[in-house]
Specification:
Layout (H helix, E strand, L loop, with lengths): L5 E6 L5 E6 L19 H12 L14 H5 L2 H4 E8 L2 E6 L6 H4 L10 H9 L5 H4 L7 E7 L3 E6 L12 E5 L4 H10 L13 H6 L3 E7 L2 E7 L9 H9 L3 H7 L5 E3 L22 H10 L6 E6 L11 H13 L3 E6 L3 H9 L5 E7 L6 H8 L1 H6 L9 H11 L4 H18 L2 E14 L2 E2 L15 E2 L3
Parallel strand pairs: 11-12
Antiparallel strand pairs: 1-2, 2-4, 3-4, 5-6, 6-7, 8-14, 9-13, 9-14, 10-14, 15-16
Helix pairs in contact: 9-11, 14-16, 16-17
């Protein structure tokens, strides 16, 4: 956690009041339809949070049917009030202590919007431009966006830290990893995200490339929709978990560049429960448990596979095929289903699936960002909990862990929560992957972000 738009802050002894002192002299970006008349101030902070929080806010429903992150972290019930003390001081008052509150404010959902720009667009009858043609205070400003094709940025000349070293930043959206690799080799692009694991050895051998790597703060999983039969029965969930050969998935899908997952949080995260025993790969025991649950002849289900590539799942279709074959061996017939990515997320958020493949890369390094955001009861209501699993014992543990700042106590509570999770098996935990970032050697200053983001502000291109 480091200062940015907030230069400093204080937290009251009871953990209920956070007072932020805002940075002066921060200039908003200019666009063709907006020239700011003032710098960033407290009004922008209030606008950003009240838009998400208050149903009667004029921007509450503009472009957004819901505020998934804001709601899944319980912000609506956590916040008591937000006060503007003066132009450069804001006070957040909470209803109860929240240990990850500061870490959560470093996430994307808390990115600050310009209240002046919002008012200008509302008056012009084009409020949607606040999201689709956004302005910010960061080092790069949006120039153009073409869905599924390209995103173009240029350096913000008045960025408060100083102008970036590169003038233009282009995200060339290329779905096929083989095509991305060819673009990297030819020099058409400089950095490549989400390489095919099978290409890593060749990339490392290429004298024109550098391949950075680190253990990912991630989890790839299969979620059971516990609101639908037969997945409301823990015996069925355990049986299907025991039927999956996870090591084979690591070998085939990840080419060995991952470790088998047994917990819902990665082993690099504090409070990880090393002593948890995973369900063994045991098809015979799986058949027996399935029969005990009332399915001696097996069952039928869908199996949703992501249409996109992510570090925690580089080939969801292939993973689904392996799981399909494993389940078939115990009499479970699975139909593989997929949709366009936006539709996939929308439909699964609404609970249309029976089982699905998904995953997560941590946003802030706090276990709450996995255990509460992905598995808590608040998240079951708003859809980030794709298992739609609201377990009172688990939820009580993770909520209690949010209420104390004592790391030893939080660790104890999160370890207990992981035990409940493993016992109840709302997911099949599959993999924690190694994350690779190949780039051309002329790229200087790039640092991998353990949270999966990309920081291009310090990056430069050096002629070779």
């Amino acid at each position: 956690m480091e200062p940015a738009l907030a230069e400093s802050w204080e937290v009251s002894d009871d953990g209920l009041v956070y007072t932020f002192h805002l940075r002066r002299g921060v200039k908003w970006q200019k666009t063709a339809n907006f020239t700011p008349t003032r710098e960033f101030n407290a009004d922008d902070v209030l606008f950003t949070f009240e838009r998400q929080w208050k149903a009667d806010h004029p921007y509450h429903r503009v472009n957004q049917p819901s505020y998934e992150y804001f709601e899944s972290m319980g912000m609506p019930s956590l916040l008591d009030r937000i006060e503007k003390i003066d132009d450069y001081t804001v006070r957040f008052v909470l209803k109860q202590p929240e240990a990850p509150f500061l870490a959560n404010l470093g996430m994307d959902f808390a990115s600050i919007f310009s209240a002046e720009y919002a008012a200008r667009m509302m008056a012009a009858g084009t409020p949607e431009k606040v999201d689709f043609e956004p302005v910010g205070t960061g080092p790069f400003q949006l120039v153009a966006f073409q869905k599924d094709a390209v995103i173009r940025y240029r350096a913000h000349p008045d960025y408060w830290r100083g102008r970036a070293k590169i003038d233009d930043l282009v995200f060339a959206i290329t779905v096929d990893p083989s095509v991305r690799y060819q673009k990297l080799k030819s020099g058409e692009c400089h950095i490549m995200a989400y390489p095919n694991p099978a290409d890593i050895p060749a990339m490392k051998a290429d004298p024109e490339l550098v391949v950075m790597e680190q253990e990912g703060l991630n989890i790839g999983y299969l979620a059971f929709n516990t609101e639908k039969k037969p997945f409301d029965d823990v015996r069925v969930r355990r049986a299907l978990a025991m039927a999956v050969n996870k090591q084979a998935i690591i070998d085939v899908v990840f080419q060995g560049y991952a470790r088998v997952a047994k917990n819902p949080i990665p082993p690099t995260m504090w409070s990880y429960h090393e002593d948890i025993q995973d369900y063994p790969y045991d098809p015979d025991a799986a058949r027996k448990l399935l029969a005990e649950a009332g399915f001696p002849n097996g069952l039928r289900t869908d199996l949703w596979a992501m249409p996109v590539q992510r570090p925690y799942n580089p080939n969801a279709r292939r993973m689904a095929e392996l799981i399909q074959a494993d389940w078939k061996a115990i009499g479970v017939e699975a139909e593989i289903v997929s949709f366009e990515w936006g539709e996939y997320l929308k439909r699964s958020k609404n609970g249309e699936h029976q089982t699905l493949l998904l995953g997560w890369t941590g946003d802030n390094g706090d276990p709450d960002n996995f255990l509460h955001v992905l598995l808590g009861c608040d998240a079951a209501k708003d859809g980030t909990n794709r298992a739609r699993w609201c377990h009172p014992e688990f939820d009580a543990l993770v909520v209690e862990a949010k209420r104390t700042t004592d790391i030893a106590k939080r660790t104890e509570l999160y370890r207990k929560a992981q035990e409940v999770f493993k016992r109840e098996a709302p997911w099949i935990t599959i993999a924690h992957s190694i994350v690779f970032m190949p780039m051309r050697k002329e790229v200087q200053g790039y640092v991998m972000d353990p949270l999966g983001g990309h920081a291009f502000y310090p990056v430069d291109l050096v002629a070779r």
